[in-house]
């Protein structure tokens, strides 16, 4: 996976690369019926060759509500039951990231191609296991890192990996956005609802976020000084 990403993307006018709107039809099944899956389902509407044929949640009524909202024919209250559906080609997994390995494994063992919402896994060994299983069963498996396919990022990769005029340099890229939204109380998980709950789960996130922001600012300031010098 890393080696593939370290090769330049094909040219923008490469005739051998199929246009997304001309790809073969794909029938999707969605696991997880929360906000992220809602956004994915909305985006998928713009691909005429893609269709969502089923969705699944831990509670059937929630899956049915999601299905009604997005015009999905089948709703399941059990992940395993949905994975038995022969009408599904590929599964998008958008539930809690702590279950990425177990759900990803179920999908691959059911011979379904898989798109796992980021983060791909919580541990390196989980990611390596899933990649190995997908390769062994000749199935497609990818993390849903959508920014990877931004045209601007694709062009940046061409310049960095393919070279432009042979000169070397450095650049600093930053991508962010501000979004105002309301959070449903259904999205809030209490410790009782999380079997993997520990104090670290509640502390680790905010601490990592603060450390990330501080390090990013220090790095940006240092790099700016180096470039100015």
Automatic annotation (TrEMBL):
Catalytic activity from the UniProt record: D-xylose + NADP(+) = D-xylono-1,5-lactone + NADPH + H(+)
Domain of life: Eukaryota
Record Pfam families: GFO_IDH_MocA (PF01408)
Alphabetized PANTHER family for the sequence: OXIDOREDUCTASES, TRANS-1,2-DIHYDROBENZENE-1,2-DIOL DEHYDROGENASE
Record domain Gfo/Idh/MocA-like oxidoreductase N-terminal: where: 26-144
Sequence similarity: Belongs to the Gfo/Idh/MocA family.
Keyword DNA-binding belongs to the record: no
Record has Oxidoreductase as a keyword: yes
Sorted UniProt keywords: Oxidoreductase
GO terms assigned for molecular function: D-xylose 1-dehydrogenase (NADP+) activity; nucleotide binding
Annotated protein name in UniProt: D-xylose 1-dehydrogenase (NADP(+), D-xylono-1,5-lactone-forming)
Enzyme Commission number(s): 1.1.1.179
């Amino acid at each position: 996976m890393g080696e593939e990403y370290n090769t330049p993307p094909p040219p923008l006018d490469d005739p051998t690369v199929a246009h997304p709107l001309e790809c073969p039809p794909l029938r999707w099944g969605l696991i997880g019926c929360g906000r992220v899956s809602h956004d994915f389902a909305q985006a998928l509407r713009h691909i005429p060759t893609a269709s969502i044929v089923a969705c699944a949640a831990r509670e059937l009524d929630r899956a049915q509500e999601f299905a009604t909202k997005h015009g999905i024919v089948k709703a399941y209250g059990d992940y395993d039951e949905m994975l038995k559906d022969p009408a599904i080609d590929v599964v998008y997994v958008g539930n809690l990231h702590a279950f990425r390995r177990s759900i990803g494994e179920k999908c691959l063992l059911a011979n379904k191609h898989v798109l796992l919402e980021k983060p791909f896994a919580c541990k390196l060994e989980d990611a390596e296991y899933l990649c190995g299983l997908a390769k062994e069963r000749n199935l497609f498996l990818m993390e849903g890192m959508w920014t990877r396919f931004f045209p601007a990022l694709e062009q940046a990769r061409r310049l960095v990996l393919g070279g432009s005029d042979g000169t070397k340099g450095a650049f600093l890229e930053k991508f962010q956005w501000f979004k105002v939204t309301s959070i449903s109380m259904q999205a809030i998980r209490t410790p009782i609802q999380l079997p993997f709950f520990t104090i670290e789960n509640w502390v680790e996130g905010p601490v990592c976020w603060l450390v990330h922001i501080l390090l990013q600012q220090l790095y940006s300031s240092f790099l700016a000084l180096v470039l100015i010098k």
